[in-house]
Specification:
With about 450 residues, the protein is α/β, with parallel strands linked by helices. The chain folds into 3 domains: about 5-140 and about 265-325, FAD/NAD(P)-binding domain (3-Layer(bba) Sandwich), CATH 3.50.50.60; about 150-260, FAD/NAD(P)-binding domain; about 345-460, FAD/NAD-linked reductase, C-terminal dimerisation domain (Enolase-like, domain 1, 2-Layer Sandwich). The protein contains 14 helices and 21 strands. The strands form 5 sheets. Strands 1, 2, 3, 4, 5, 6 and 16 form a 7-stranded mixed beta sheet that branches. The protein has a 5-stranded antiparallel beta sheet with strand order 17-18-21-20-19, with helices on both faces. A 4-stranded parallel beta sheet has the order 10-9-8-14, covered by helices on one side. Strand 9, helix 8 (about 210-220) and strand 10 form a beta-alpha-beta unit. The protein is globular.
């Protein structure tokens, strides 16, 4: 058969754009459809603008701490509208970058809603194109829960980036990484922040419990108030703001309620059922190790498959996909030892196994090395902020299985150690590495004392 394209991509986010560009570089004829904005969630309503807001919030403490180092900074105020306007300009710039990357690679861009109308056909607002292979990379979206008043009065993380005013009182529902990051932003910018969470500790079991505990304590120092074992029953508008009805604790009146309670794959409008593409119960597209669905010509990758919802994972998967299908390189990305970070204040980062996961896999064949200290950054500042570092080591092989950190620059530091973990570095390799002094990072190569077995057993329990 003769097709209009060798590859047609639905969704111009991080994964779809990378797959399209690399496939085109390999000589494929590529088209891509996008209905909203280039760059997807990450660039527009995700990691990029959220990191900019995290930077903005961090300056609150920088200004305070500067006095201990001899700076007289005087009175300072924060202007929310300026932050949002400058953020918008940066996002517009990045959208232009994505457009130029696609055009420069020779990818044909279609604007509109794309829908499968066959195993090799896609309709974009009525225009039908054919392709030998179709890649779905439509990502996911923030969800509002089925709580009375939530849709009328609540917002999701997407909406935060377009608020006209910063709320002075806010309830953040959900203590996953998105909720934690926004709670930290609002708290440092001066808001009264209450976090309502159905669990007993922030974050989930994918993060190490010691790191979760330390971060929870540090956020509390900044004024974040926790309501654990708490469910939202109802949300209603009042003359004074928004009244949040909660289980197990008193109702609370705020200016805004942010639901950070989960995301769902963007699959509803794709026509998957009509074509016969298999989906999971939550709507995610089922794929094999080569990102292929049960329809041989249709593939999917990134958040729409609900594997690991991280931008670099989607980008890496998109690049590998294009190399496999059009570059003659049968490679796949590894889903093991993927580093990740929570861009809170202070930030948290990790790579490899948590202590409970390591103990479940290797039983008592585990040693723990850890340290909690006050960073030199705060030596002259009146700030009680702790840095925590932890190594999970397999005793019999001496291999470092996990690296965990809470503290300033944690994502930048752990990114480097992720290379070592993926190369199979041992504790002896860490010990043999000379540290850069004085830095916080050097603590990872100077940890020598194992945690006592009794404490290890208590943590594992």
């Amino acid at each position: 058969m003769s097709f209009d394209f060798d590859l047609f991509v639905i969704g111009a986010g991080s994964g779809g754009t990378r797959a399209a560009r690399i496939a085109a570089a390999h000589g494929a004829r590529v088209g891509i459809a996008e209905r909203q904005y280039l760059g997807g969630t990450c660039v527009n309503v995700g990691c990029v603008p959220k990191k900019l807001m995290t930077f903005a919030a961090s300056y609150a403490h920088h200004i305070e701490d500067a006095q201990g180092f001899g700076w007289d900074v005087g009175d300072s105020t924060h202007d929310w509208k300026t932050l949002i306007a400058n953020k918008d300009r940066e996002i517009d710039r990045l959208n232009g970058v994505y457009r130029r990357l696609l055009e420069g690679a020779g990818v044909k861009l279609f604007w509109g809603d794309a829908r499968l109308v066959g195993a090799n056909e896609v309709a974009i607002d009525g225009t039908v194109v054919s392709a030998e292979k179709i890649l779905i990379a439509t990502g996911g979206r923030a969800m509002l829960p089925d709580v009375p008043g939530a849709r009328e009065h609540g917002i999701t993380s997407d909406d935060v980036f377009y608020l006209d005013e910063m709320p002075r009182r806010i309830v953040v529902v959900g203590a996953g990484y998105i909720g934690i990051e926004f709670a930290g932003v609002f708290a440092r910018l001066g808001a009264e922040v209450t976090m309502a969470h159905r669990g007993k500790q922030i974050l989930n079991d994918g993060f190490d419990p010691d790191a979760r505990r330390v971060l929870q304590e540090e956020l509390a120092k900044q004024g974040v108030v926790y309501a654990f074992d708490c469910l939202i029953r109802r949300v209603e508008r009042t003359q004074g703001g928004i009244l949040v009805h909660r289980s197990n604790c008193d109702n609370i009146e705020v200016d805004q309620i942010l639901f950070a309670t989960g995301r769902a794959p963007n699959t509803e409008t794709l026509g998957l059922a009509e074509v016969g593409v298999r989906q999971a119960a939550n709507g995610a597209i089922c794929v094999d190790d080569d990102d292929r669905t049960n329809i041989p010509s249709i593939y999917a990758l990134g958040d729409v498959t609900d594997r690991i919802q991280l931008t670099p994972v989607a980008t890496g998967a998109g690049h590998a996909f294009a190399d496999r299908l059009f570059g003659g390189n049968a490679r796949r990305i590894s889903y093991e030892n993927i580093p990740t970070a929570v861009f809170s204040n202070p930030p948290m980062a990790q790579v490899g196994l948590t202590e409970p996961t390591a103990r479940a896999r290797f039983c008592d064949d585990i040693d723990i090395f850890e340290s909690t200290f006050k960073s030199m950054r705060f030596a002259l500042a009146d700030r009680d902020e702790k840095t925590m570092m932890k190594l999970v080591v397999q005793r019999s092989t001496d291999r470092v299985l996990g690296v965990h950190m809470v503290g300033q620059d944690a994502p930048e530091i752990v990114q480097g150690f992720a290379v070592a973990v993926n190369m199979g570095a041992t504790k002896a390799d860490f010990d043999a590495t000379i540290g850069i002094h004085p830095t916080a990072a050097e603590e990872f190569v100077t940890l020598r004392t194992k945690r006592a077995s009794a404490a290890m057993a208590a943590t594992a329990a």
